[in-house]
Please model this.
Amino acid sequence: PRLCVVGSGPAGFYTAQHILKHHGGARVDIYEKLPVPFGLVRFGVAPDHPEVKNVINAFTQTARSERCAYYGNVTVGKDVTVAELRQAYHAVVLSYGAEDNRVLGIPGENLSGVYSARAFVGWYNGLPENRDLKPDLSCETALILGHGNVALDVARILLSPLHLLRKTDITDSSLAALACSKVKRVWLVGRRGPLQVAFTIKELREMINLPGARPVLNPADFTGLENAIKDAPRPRKRLTELMIKTALEKPGEKTMEVQAVAAQAAAPREWGLKFQRSPQEVLPTTDGRRARGVRMALTRLEGSGDSAKAIPTGDVEELECGLVLSSIGYRSRPLDPAVPFDTQRGVIPNSSGRVEGVPGLYCSGWVKRGPTGVIITTMNDSFDTAQSVLEDLRVGVLDVSASREGFGAVESILGSRGVRPVSFSDWEKIDAAEVARGKAAGKPREKIVDPQEMLQLIGR
Model:
């Protein structure tokens, strides 16, 4: 059987890997919009988390399999339609992720100095569409709206000592911009309370231990929480205990050495968590052009645990800041009118990855379940979709008696539209060039951020 996967991030690669491993006759083609593969492993994972990127090695093994092919620089829905792919393959799996972000929907959201965390992450990670972001880092206080791991990533990058970032694959131009940054205070603001934060303990601990940055947590925010977490699941309990401990600890209390106390107390930079505040408006400077602060509604919680709702109390508060980053979630977009899409939830309606009402069409990853979880979550999710495909092959739901041309058919369609795909060995040339450039600067790689430059490099 000939199958194809749309999207070359973890969802796409894990789906392909599982199918190839468990079906000796399957051939899988992977299509990708960008010339370069790996999706959020390359463009989402923070530069100072190189260990998380090790999955690239496994993906590379998959792509090099003789039953797998990679076609980059092909935008499905534009260069080739889903209907055309369905004609060419026995099954099509959509794994194209969440290429958009949720919006705040408040006045002032479009002022200069306001960015989505998604665009900011894309900027420092070399995502081509964000390479010209030029965020203004000339203010002292930044406000991040959201309490997830992406919010912590952004805060950590803003406050990290340069010597730590220099050794990473952060882009050259964002490193230069961060070197001139005036930001020394970062507030992370959430609508709900400490028991509802979405970030995980590893990321929080990393932030607490960041050299030269002091955590500022208000002990009053944590009153009575020891009791509330007695019966909470262990991860939530440990996370909350770490926040409480950090809130109550005087600087340098761990080791009462004079230098340690002085160093922490005099830390040039600081960050903190603010709870039960819902953004109402980004406030403009007098000329009406830039952000100067955010007005927030104070909230109270109705209900408890993960399902607690934040209800405005009627009180408001203004926080001064020149940089606002909204980190309230990624969002999937519909790809092609031929594919059903639930705009409310931002996912393709499916059961176990089988797209509702369209036999032979499947989905995996964030476009299947929404933009949550880490790489391992997506791995399990993709294996689940791959199982559905294998099952449908086994019981004959997918008719493999009719031969399908696969890439042969797609190649002529792309050719007629003037589109030339990038192969995996083309990517390996780009990869080698990036690694060589990085080596000269003492980095793992120096990412090429311009797709035209990528294509020139492979002789286009």
